[in-house]
Design a protein that fits this description.
This protein is α/β, with parallel strands linked by helices. It has a single domain, classed as Vaccinia Virus protein VP39 (Rossmann fold). The protein has eleven helices and seven strands. It has a seven-stranded mixed sheet with strand order 3-2-1-4-5-7-6, with helices on both faces. Helix 7 packs parallel to helix 9 and helix 8 packs antiparallel against helix 9. The radius of gyration is 19 Å and the shape is globular.
Length: about 300
């Protein structure tokens, strides 16, 4: 269990990314990467040739084929709070002659860091068991302060958000609450979770709205998000290695499962997409074999401005 006691959000995410930085994860995410690149390539085809591209939540870049993307683009800006993870991925996979087309932007895509939020503070707020104290503090941390405008007023032909919006607070909350609340977690969760969800929603909408603003007229926008975990109840045991060989079965299974329940953070994203449905071109669903014991379902959508 990763206990979030780091001094900064960057240190926390660096430790998280370190767990998925090796060759095993890159190879294991092949199906997920293919789904993502299918949407990305369509986004490029709908737009201008040799586009300028922004990718948000790049991390270890396991979700995308860096060489394929860079080769077909004029410029690619890769954004993540853990810039070191991006640089390592570039060093591993991108030939030298392509690297001058890439810029790494290491920044928090939310206002949290610039407002003084740290994983350690977050754990202490949960340990206080005071919902009022928690909401007072988080309201200050989530206030927009301009730092979340991570590329300023720059515009792009293609903007891509990888599965990062479900990771803004949720994983830190799960890791911390299991430790600080222990046997009382179920009771405390009932008190705190509505507030956790509200702040996660606020942050997600800030990122979505800002990234949508960065799309040029007639440009394209891709968002992918994990929507549920098939390794958890009530779907535990549904997935097998044979499942990935039948794309029709996969799509039907994910569609049916999404009608039952999805991650709350994913619900926020789908609501945002529904509000912008007049811009939608195509959506896709696919499986993401995340690790040996974890299989996610992913929803991706392509929009045109």
């Amino acid at each position: 269990m990763l206990i979030p006691n780091e001094a900064t959000m960057r240190e926390w995410m660096s430790r998280v990314n370190a767990h998925t930085s090796d060759t095993y994860y890159y190879k294991n995410w092949e199906l997920h990467r293919a789904g993502t690149m299918s949407l990305v390539n369509q986004a490029i085809q709908y737009g201008t040739s040799s586009p300028e591209v922004l990718i948000v939540g790049a991390g270890n870049c396991n979700d995308i084929d860096l060489v394929e993307l860079i080769s077909t683009s004029a410029k690619v800006d890769l954004v993540d709070i853990d810039g070191h993870a991006i640089e390592q991925a570039i060093n591993r996979r991108v030939p030298y002659h392509l690297r001058d087309k890439v810029e790494v932007i290491s920044t928090d895509i939310t206002p949290l860091s610039n407002n003084g939020f740290t994983p350690e503070i977050f754990c202490k707020l949960l340990a206080s068991r005071s919902v009022n104290e928690f909401t007072d503090a988080m309201s200050r941390f989530c206030v927009s302060n301009g730092s979340e405008r991570f590329v300023g007023n720059k515009h792009y032909d293609v903007v891509i958000i990888l599965p990062v919006l479900t990771q803004l607070i949720g994983p830190m909350y799960r890791a911390c609450s299991e430790v600080v609340w222990r046997d009382d977690r179920a009771k405390m969760h009932d008190d705190f979770y509505p507030e956790i969800y509200n702040y996660s929603t606020t942050l997600s909408r800030q990122v979505l709205d800002y990234c949508w603003e960065r799309v040029r007229p007639s440009g394209t926008f891709v968002i992918t998000t994990d929507v549920l975990d098939f390794s958890e109840d009530p779907w535990k045991g549904t997935f097998s290695t044979q499942s990935t060989s039948n794309p029709y079965w996969m799509r039907d299974m994910i569609k049916s499962a999404m009608e039952i329940a999805i991650f709350d953070d994913a619900e926020t994203i789908l609501e945002w997409l529904d509000y912008h449905k007049q811009h939608s071109i195509v959506f896709q669903r696919w499986l993401w074999p995340f690790s040996e014991n974890k299989i996610h379902a992913v929803f991706g959508e392509l929009l045109r401005k």
